[in-house]
Amino acid sequence: MDIRRIGKHLLGHRWRVRKHLPPEAMAAIERAIRAGETTHSGQVVFAVEGALDGIPLFRNQPARERALDVFAHLKIWDTAHNNGILIYLLLADRDVEIVADRGIHARVGEAVWKTICVAMEAEFKRGRFEAGVVEGIAAVSRQLAKHFPKQGAGPNELPDAPVVI
């Protein structure tokens, strides 16, 4: 168990989300998701967690495992074409993970998702959280548009508003 990581998570929680992604930034993120979904039939969800607490923290749960839990909890896997995508940000670790449902993941692959995550994390290191998230959403949307282009007016299966955990 990494005591420094525990301290980082215990000292900062939900306030961290509001500090790095204030309401205006969250509104911009929602607009970016909505704009991206006009180009594809996929479903993009952005979820941010200030810090882990309780069992996930004391089990030293990595951001990837937590992202998988959030993906399941938010039922992102439950889309008609299996093309839901979660962009998960764990602020305490400044770690971003992309979890893609099997329909889109089979066509894109892990290397592309990792490249998008690395670009987002580089923006976070510069203190540009809103820009990093919006650019990440745009990159994910380009992949979805390539493999699942918009065809007619399909339903919006998942909410576009960012989820704060």
TrEMBL record:
Residues 21-142 form the TPM domain. Pfam families: TPM_phosphatase (PF04536). This is TPM domain-containing protein.
